[in-house]
Amino acid sequence: MSLWDKIQKGLHEVTEDLEKTVANVASQVGAVNVAPSTAAQQRAAEWQVALQQRRLPSFVQERLRATAAGQRPWIQSGPVAALLMERSHGIHPLGMVGGNCWYHFGFSWTQGHYDGWHQAIDRLRLEAVAMGANAVLNVDMRVRHGDGEDMDYALMGTAVRIQDLPPAWEPAVATVSSLEFVRLLEEGVVPVGIAIGAEYDWYQPWGGTMLDQANQAAPFAARYWNMEIPDLSSFQENVRRRALYNLREDGRKLGAGVLAHTQYSQVFRVNNEQGEGFLCRHIAIGTAVSYEPSRAPQHELLPTVSLGGPLRSFRPHRKDLL
Amino acid sequence: MTKEVIAPHAVERLKGLRSQGSHEGIFTSDLSVNEFVMVRKAEFEPLGLVVGSCIYHMGIQYGSWNQNMEMDVLSQAMYQARELAMSRMEQEAIILQADGVVGVRLEVKRMEWDQDILEFMAIGTAIAHRSGVPGFKGVGGKPFTSDLSGQDFWMLLEAGYRPMEMVMGSCVYHVAHQGVLRSMGNIGRNTELEQFTQAMYDARELAMERMQQEAADAQADGITGVQLHEGSHNWKPHVIEFFAVGTAVKAMEDADTRVDALRPQLVLPVND
To answer: What protein family does this chain belong to (chain B) (predicted)?
Structure first.
């Protein structure tokens, strides 16, 4: 049972059968017999309904609204230097917003990544909209691994309001900090979201791969030969191409280009009833940026040579030289 | 930042509006945000990620135990497989009508199920000049290839050079073992192991030669950003690969006027 299933089962127990829950909790904490408070039960129930209905529980909505209205202290993640930039450029931090999705892979790890992240992004947007934000900056992407075939996709960032602009119905989601965000805005580039391209496929060569066939044709000799395995090459290339096509299409939905920071691909050999097969998967994750290609960057650029870090490139560890 | 400072397009986007069905500005790349800005500063636009891959079975070769020698079967394999991956990536760039490919990474991975099968992957971002100015293509009118980052690409153009081709030289070498008598003779003495020194020299020299030859064939003036990798792809301990890779560059016609306009400033950060 995945952790998500456990959580769901737990939530179900809480709402359905109080006595059993109490006994269950008691057995786990040993001698200390603690029943969940009514408030905690209410919260749990409300979370369940909210997640099902793709909205926020009322207490979260209320806290976010109060924070955005200045009745509670604002929250900002990221460096203090960013705060300076935010002040000078009219960016007001509202509060931290997050979204996550603990996902169980029933049939596909690869597709799970696509769905898990998208669900988490949608939930992050939900909180940002509740705060009346224009953008969420400094968005951090994290995963947690479960006990079995499951994983949690988590996002956290700072919702900001930009001076003189009305709240957005679809706030930009940017993985860059506000320092970079400001610089990009001045260049006419807006980081708008996170794009994902994922693809997997099976290859079951009848009579083995080209290498196996060469081995059959020339036993003992073929293993001394240099040769490409063309069928495996093109199989893998096609998976990769389709993943990148999906990445572009995901970007297109946001009306944006994609700067892929993460690329991951794997080929496995699997033995099953049909014989030897290959599984290939490729995942690409990137920052989606919206801009006008015809509009050249306006800002002047001054090349500088820093006497700090970059010139001292030869800095080996001591153990490397001794 | 008041609205006047932000580009109108950016303001629309931040209000949550966007133009639907536009093909403008839809691309993929593995550039970082900074690289993206710098490529655009250089008056180029990213077109798309291009990849080429090759899964390759390396032949088996045994080196003589006590002889320095190039393992030519392995050298050829490393060379041919990389070439195949690179040329497939180039094909994709040609289809996109690119001027060239920047930020090319060449990766080699060993397959889990067979140590003689290696996977080679070349990946980079195809770019084209924003207003279609000609004269940036590489050898024979094909897109140029380069392992330079977006920032380096901008600096290269500012310095009056254009990239021609990513060039490489590879040499897999077997370093001879010492004979027992020889080892016995060295007991208690501080001495150079000339045979080993020679092997390193020879292998490096062969790799450099080959890389330079490629650049000469590409009619380049020089090679920049060269990196020399020494690696062993799960071979016997005495087998080592020297792999030199860099970007062959050629001076542009208006190089001198460009360079005159260049005034790099020295700065000393006080952060640390």
So the answer is: Belongs to the UPF0145 family.
- From B113's Cα to the closest Cα of chain A, the distance in A is 7
What 3 state SS string does chain B have? CCCCCCCHHHHHHHCCCCCCCCCCCCCEECCCHHHHHHHHHCCEEEEEEEEEEEEEECCCCCCCCCCCEECHHHHHHHHHHHHHHHHHHHHHHHHCCCCEEEEEEEEEEECCCCCCEEEEEEEEEEEEECCCCCCCCCHHHCCEECCCCHHHHHHHHHCCEEEEEEEEEEEEEECCCCCHHHHHHCCCCCCCCHHHHHHHHHHHHHHHHHHHHHHHHCCCCEEEEEEEEEECCCCCCCEEEEEEEEEEEEECCCHHHHHHCCCCEEECCCCC
Side chain identity, residue A296: A
Inter-chain residue contact B265 with A302, CB threshold 8 Å: yes
- Contact B259/A at CB under 8 A: no
Residues B29, A260: C-beta atoms closer than 8 Å? yes
At residue A87, what is the residue type?
R
- Cβ neighbours of residue B151 closer than 8 Å, sequence gap 6 or more: B34, B35, B38
- DSSP type of residue A53: T
- Residue of chain B minimizing CA distance to A86: B1
CA distance A93 to A117: 24
Residue A140 DSSP symbol? E
| B117 vs A: CB within 8 A | yes
Contact B89, B51 (CB under 8 A): yes
Q: What is the CA radius of gyration of chain B?
A: 24
* DSSP assignment letter at A312: -
Question: Chain A: residue nearest B77 by CA?
Answer: A226
Which residue in the block uniquely carries the two structure tokens 């990239």?
Answer: B163
What DSSP string runs through A145-184?
Answer: E-SSSEEEEEEEEEEEEETT-PPPSS-EE-SS-HHHHHHH
With beta carbons under 8 A apart, name residues in chain B contacting A191. Answer: 33
Asked whether the whole model's pTM tops 0.90, one would answer no
Q: Which residue of A has its CA nearest to B41?
A: A297
Each residue's pLDDT, cut to its tens digit, for chain B (272 residues) gives: 444 566 677 777 777 666 554 557 789 998 988 889 889 999 999 999 999 999 999 888 877 777 888 888 888 888 899 999 999 999 999 999 999 999 999 998 888 888 889 999 999 999 999 988 888 999 889 999 999 999 999 989 988 899 999 999 999 988 888 777 777 887 888 888 888 888 889 999 999 999 999 999 999 999 998 988 887 777 777 888 889 999 999 998 877 877 777 777 787 777 65
Task: Find out whether A136 and A158 touch, Cβ atoms under 8 Å.
Answer: yes
> Which residues, other chains included, contact A306 with Cβ-Cβ below 8 Å and sequence gap of 6+?
B267, B268, B269
Q: Which residues of A touch B22 (CB under 8 A)?
A: 255
CA distance A189 to B10: 7
Among all residues of chain B, which has the CA nearest to that of A171?
B16
In A, which residues are within 8 Å of B93 by CB distance?
A: none
Q: Does B158 touch chain A (CB under 8 A)?
A: yes
CB nearest to A237's CB, from B10, B28, B53:
B53
